[in-house]
Specification:
The complex is a heterodimer of chains A (324) and B (508).
Chain A: H1 3-30, H2 36-39, H3 42-67, H4 75-91, H5 96-120, H6 125-143, E1 149-150, H7 173-191, H8 193-203, H9 205-210, H10 215-241, E2 243-244, H11 252-262, H12 274-294, H13 298-323
Antiparallel strand pairs in A: 1-2
Helix pairs in contact in A: 1-12, 1-13, 3-7, 3-8, 3-10, 3-11, 3-12, 4-5, 4-6, 4-10, 5-6, 5-10, 7-8, 8-10, 11-12, 11-13, 12-13
Chain B: E1 11-20, E2 23-33, E3 38-42, H1 49-57, E4 64-69, E5 72-73, H2 79-84, E6 87-90, H3 102-106, E7 113-114, E8 117-118, H4 120-133, H5 150-163, E9 168-172, H6 180-195, E10 199-203, H7 207-213, E11 216-221, E12 224-230, H8 236-244, E13 262-271, E14 278-283, E15 287-291, H9 298-305, E16 311-318, H10 328-333, E17 336-339, H11 343-347, H12 354-359, E18 367-368, E19 371-372, H13 374-387, H14 404-417, E20 422-426, H15 434-449, E21 453-457, H16 461-467, E22 470-475, E23 478-484, H17 490-499
Parallel strand pairs in B: 3-10, 3-11, 6-9, 9-10, 15-21, 15-22, 17-20, 20-21
Antiparallel strand pairs in B: 1-2, 1-4, 4-5, 7-8, 11-12, 13-14, 13-16, 18-19, 22-23
Classes of the chains: A mainly alpha (324), B alpha/beta (508).
Chain lengths: 324, 508
């Protein structure tokens, strides 16, 4: 490739790179004769979006954590715990809004503990959050008495309804919440001092500290925000299932991390974006949905998603090497 | 006498003492810095320079002693305190966030914002002004720092220090990884800083450059201040004398050696980032120097010979036969050894012990029924520590605790331990004190006397002229010329390296 062509190719790759994978996945299923008439239907797209909400909310918080050079393995356990708390509160007669808030705050509390342990005890995030993965899951089962908590149906359960109650909403309120928070977090990351400090910490923490950035406070805040998003995700999980189930979302933290990584997040910190993460979430959702429609067994999905993770990350590296 | 001498000092450090266990790193050191002065801090590795500036920055707490900045007491408890009082450190290992852009790095911790939202336009304007002030308006504020050259990164760090309203700038070996051209530009920046009343503490092993850029100097030896003065009042010899404390006799000890058969031969040899193919022969018992600016292709040449970087075209023969594989491990099997210019990054496993580092490339002598005999390994390494005069508590000491010079000796000991016949040495004396340098030269001579072949890459021309039999010069990825060391002088070497043209042999 000559110099100019190379540069153009590179610019194109930088702008459209994240979308390429998503477009390929959608194109793949749109041309499959078995499903092509159903795949791009509005009803199916809505269902893909609804399926994305839980992973996407967790991934929004995880993006911040990963850009900051950390990891949160307790995300899925936190989602389960928060869904249990929300169900427990509503079951005990609390107004639905209070149940929702309590669920979210529970997630935030778990995140706050993660962040505090990591910064004050100077422990590795992997270890702390791996411990918290067990603690949060156990706490959920304990509170739920090792079973599902039934809660009376309220408006909270309509957050994830495929046909929303005021029909002008068009999509489930959960999808709108997801979109709104994605925009908010993208703005936070790109245009606020806080966002810039997260990138700086993930890129070179000692440099950040030397420049007067309050790294401890920033990191605690990042883990707390991640926890709050997991809490919200837990409330959505409760809304979808209509019960608080402490055994739900096992292994989901890996889907959340995969979404961030497919979207260009670097586990070494300093890199990642909300747009990329959202694309990562939708790549996985479309794949799952497409595979299910094709009637492909579950193991095919698992293999394909595994391959996608590796291909996405290696493509990203190639892109970086070219750019360097 | 310069008129600034009449001004009160911007910094006064009095009777600073710092001990680490039994060793006294700083012994009642008193140090004064005047506003607008460039003050060279000189001394061998381990003389206490780093400790002194760490005390100043707040990274190390002294056992006793007092500090005054502009006549106000200064007792930092962390580097951030130092920053707040106007002290900025430009470290060897750069303190930048690689993923962030120039603008983001310069403004880090000083973001302009309203209610937490960034004012990008204002920040870019300020960064452009700062870059213009240091004469580097060509650096774009929008480019990620990891894409910049080392020299440009340093400029970004200086711009950041200015943004933090630094009064005292500490530069620790700022030119050690810069090309000649970038170094000259750096001196220019330092001079401009002076006009702004910024004082600079300048640590460097390159005495010639210190003479160019500094007004005053302080020499530390064994943790003591053994002399200060103005640069004009002291000669290079006098300063070296102060640094080493003993009669400085033979800088380049010559050990007789004679040229044997061709042991390494490259023909039209071209690796990554090399513009054209290179043809060179290296004989046993020969020291072949390779000169050139940073980025001229000399390091790439060495790395490609060692199989670390891909060979794009051309041939290589080791002991008369082309090697079958192009990988480092097969080159080691053929008797090659590489000393990397990046000691911390790839040369040594810093968190491992001296014993492990010395024996890393050849554990075979210590294998006992498939297990590693730690005792035999330690015993052997103890011998190497003595032979190489490595200052350490023992073979189990971690390499990260050693000074730069001693780390380099460990790296060199590894090549000798593995019994390499072809030694590829990339900047073997970088960041190494004068005494250790002389020792390294001596070993190189001894290796040649034992019939080994040495490729010696260096940016320091006097050592190439003093040590090598033959010197090849690279310029922008091309081999300019290779001839006997006596057919070169510093002038012609520098011309070949900077202009890429080889003048005739020196007249005299």
């Amino acid at each position: 490739m000559n110099g100019k062509g190379k540069r153009q190719f590179q610019t194109a790759l930088n702008i459209f790179g994240p979308f390429v994978g998503l477009i390929l996945v959608i194109a793949l299923f749109s041309f499959m004769p078995e499903v092509q008439d159903r795949f791009l239907r509005v009803a199916n797209l809505k269902s893909v979006a609804t399926q994305s909400v839980i992973v996407a909310l967790g991934a929004l918080g995880m993006t911040l954590v990963i850009i900051g050079g950390g990891i949160d393995l307790s995300a899925a356990s936190n989602i389960a715990l928060s869904s249990v708390i929300a169900a427990y509160a509503i079951n005990a007669g609390a107004p639905p809004l209070l149940g929702l808030v309590l669920g979210v705050l529970t997630g935030g509390l778990v995140g706050l503990v993660n962040g505090t342990l990591i910064t004050r005890l100077k422990l590795v995030p992997f270890i702390v959050t791996m411990g918290m993965m067990g603690i949060a899951r156990g706490a959920g089962k304990w509170i739920a008495g090792n079973q599902k908590i039934d809660a009376p149906l309220t408006w909270v359960n309509e957050l994830m309804a495929k046909s929303p109650r005021p029909s002008w909403l068009l999509m489930a309120p959960g999808i709108w919440i997801m979109i709104a928070f994605a925009i908010v977090m993208a703005v936070v990351l790109r245009s606020t001092v806080f966002g810039r400090h997260i990138f700086a910490i993930g890129s070179n923490e000692s440099a950040a500290r030397l420049c007067g950035i309050r790294t401890v406070r920033t990191k605690v805040l990042v883990y707390t925000i991640c926890g709050l998003f997991c809490g919200l995700s837990g409330v959505m999980e409760f809304s979808r299932l209509t019960v608080g189930d402490p055994t739900v979302a096992v292994g989901l933290e890996l889907d959340i991390i995969a979404a961030v990584v497919i979207g260009g997040g670097s586990l070494n910190g300093g890199e990642g974006s909300i747009l990329g993460t959202m694309i990562g979430v939708f790549i996985m959702s479309f794949l799952r949905n497409g595979c299910t429609m094709m009637g492909w067994p579950n193991y095919i999905q698992e293999i394909i998603i595994g391959v996608i993770i590796i291909v996405a990350v290696s493509l990203d590296q190639v892109r970086h090497r070219r750019a360097a | 006498m310069r008129d600034t001498c009449l001004l009160p000092p911007v910094l006064r450090m009095t009777d600073i003492r710092k001990t680490y266990g039994a060793t006294c790193a700083l012994d009642s050191v008193t140090f004064e810095l005047r506003p607008g002065d460039v003050h060279a801090l000189l001394g061998e590795n381990g003389a206490g320079k780093s400790t002194l500036v760490k005390v100043l920055s707040g990274a190390v707490k002294p056992d006793s002693g007092t500090m005054l900045i502009e006549n106000a007491a200064y007792a930092p408890s962390c580097p951030l305190d130092g920053r707040r009082r106007g002290i900025s450190m430009i470290y060897q290992e750069l303190n930048l966030a690689p993923h962030l852009t120039v603008e983001e790095n310069v403004m880090l911790g000083r973001e302009v914002h309203s209610a937490g939202f960034l004012d990008r336009r204002e920040m870019k304007k300020r960064v452009r002004e700062a870059l213009e002030f240091v004469h580097h308006p060509e650096i774009s504020p929008d480019i990620p720092v990891r894409k910049l050259s080392v020299g440009a990164k340093q400029v970004v760090e200086i711009a950041r220090a200015l943004m933090h309203e630094a009064k005292i700038l500490v530069m620790d070996e700022p030119t050690s990884s810069l090309s000649q051209e970038d170094s000259l530009r750096l001196f220019d920046i330092v001079r401009r800083l002076k006009t702004q009343g910024v004082s600079v503490i300048y640590i460097s092993h390159f005495l010639e450059e210190v003479q160019k850029v500094a007004d005053t100097f302080t020499v530390l030896r064994d943790g003591k201040n053994v002399g200060s003065g103005t640069m004009e009042s002291a000669s290079l010899e006098e300063i070296i004398q102060l640094m080493v404390g003993q009669k400085f006799t033979e800088m380049f000890p010559r050990i007789a050696h004679s040229k044997g058969d061709v042991i390494l031969s490259v023909k039209d040899f071209k690796g990554r980032n090399m513009a054209s193919g290179v043809s060179l022969d290296l004989h046993g018992g020969e020291i072949l120097g390779i000169a050139g600016l940073v980025g001229s292709g000399r390091t790439e040449m060495l790395r490609t010979v060692f199989g670390l970087d891909p060979l794009e075209s051309g041939r290589i023969e080791v002991s008369g036969a082309p090697p079958r594989r192009h990988t480092p491990w097969s080159r080691i099997a053929l008797g090659m050894g590489l000393l990397s210019e990046d000691r911390g990054g790839e040369g040594l496993a810093l968190s491992m012990t001296i014993a492990d580092n010395v024996t890393l490339s050849d554990f075979s002598p210590y294998r006992r029924r498939g297990l590693l005999s730690v005792n035999a390994q330690r015993k052997a390494v103890r011998g190497w520590i003595g032979k190489m005069k490595i200052k350490a508590r023992g073979p189990n000491e971690k390499v990260i605790n050693l000074s730069g010079g001693n780390q380099q000796k460990v790296a060199l000991a590894r090549l000798m331990h593995q019994g390499a016949d072809i030694l590829l040495l990339d900047e073997p004396t970088r960041g190494v004190d004068v005494v250790s340098k002389a020792q390294i030269y001596e070993w190189i001579g001894e290796l040649a006397a034992r019939g080994k072949a040495v490729l010696f890459v260096s940016s320091y021309l006097p050592e190439l002229l003093g040590v090598c039999d033959r010197i090849a010069v690279f310029h922008r990825g091309n081999l300019v010329d290779a001839r006997g060391a006596t057919d070169w002088d510093a002038q012609s070497l520098m011309t070949a390296a900077t202009v890429g043209r080889s003048a005739g042999p020196p007249e005299n």
